[in-house]
Fold this sequence. Notes:
Layout: H1 4-21, E1 29-35, E2 37-38, E3 44-52, E4 55-59, E5 64-69, E6 76-77, E7 82-86, H2 89-124, H3 130-162, E8 165-167, E9 172-177, E10 184-185, E11 190-195, E12 200-207, H4 208-213, E13 219-224, E14 231-239, E15 249-256, E16 268-273, E17 281-284, E18 289-291, E19 294-300, E20 307-311, E21 313-318, E22 321-326, E23 333-335, E24 348-352
Parallel strand pairs: 1-24
Antiparallel strand pairs: 1-23, 2-17, 3-12, 3-16, 4-11, 5-7, 5-10, 6-9, 7-8, 9-11, 12-15, 13-14, 13-16, 14-15, 17-22, 18-19, 19-20, 19-23, 21-22
Amino acid sequence: MRQLPIVLGALALLSACGAEETVVEPPVRPVKSLVVQPFGQQPTIFSGTVEPQVSTDYSFQILGRLVDRLVDVGDTVSEGALLATLDARVQEQDVQAAEAALASAEASLANAGGVATRQRALQTSSFATQAAVEDAEQLFQSARSAELQARASLDQTRERLDDTRIVADFAGIVTAVSAEDGQVVSPGESVLTVARPDLRDAVIDLPGPFADLLAIGAPLPVALELDPSVSATGTVREIAPLADPVTRSRRVRVALREPPEGFRLGTIVRVALTGDEAQALALPEAAIVRRDGETSVWVISAGGDAVALRSVAVREAGDGRWAVESGLEGGERVVAAGVNSLSEGQRVRIEEATP
């Protein structure tokens, strides 16, 4: 019996050792991080596309069945080139009927003119009365009016025949097609779109603070997204007066002056701006932690390897980045990726993130 306390004490000691062994520290985790710097040292990059300044949607002015679309997307067309046609059998028959009506009206006019001339001659010789001359003149004027009406009707039917054809008003590139052969198209329904390739814009959407700093005619450098070494000079041609109701951004069109070959329609381009955020500290979207309505970042102390969660106040600055209003100082290091899987005081191994 005296051995029982000794056994119980040994068991308690063993259980305490087991409890200590179950305490496992979080592993040291590699994280991407960056040193917080002002926007002036990290220009904001905005992406856009190359679009034509002049683009025309072609459509028919009459209802009909499309029988031949002669071009497709990417085709180059010259001024006056035939682009598409409708089934024109009805219009051709109308033209033939109008031509016949005009020929009959012209014959009636010639006959009435001859009768009026003879009646005037007979009146001079006193072989025709004034009433007969006046009747002949009236028939002649009626025949002239009928001839004019028939000629106008022929012109109208010829115009309707021309309306069965779409002809290019200028040389350009087909950028879109909206109807196929055999389809019945309504008046005004878009069939295809042609753009002028010689007049091009770089179109970008900018947040309000950046758009407000630009002015019509201001120069802007534009570079290719895939190869920033290829650039062109442009001037601001148009700034949308109203912001988009969803994104709150404003569309800016930059006219490109003699751009290189790589600036084809639809190419993605980039524009670097600093705006009035140049002195504000910049944070990427991936560095921000949002929990319970609060905004925070994981801060890595100078010379340390542990993270601490700190509340910050930020505002959107465009390009997927945020301007810091309070809570951080320039030169502090923050975690730039994987922020939702860290815990307070967790040790990390620092890896530099691309700004």
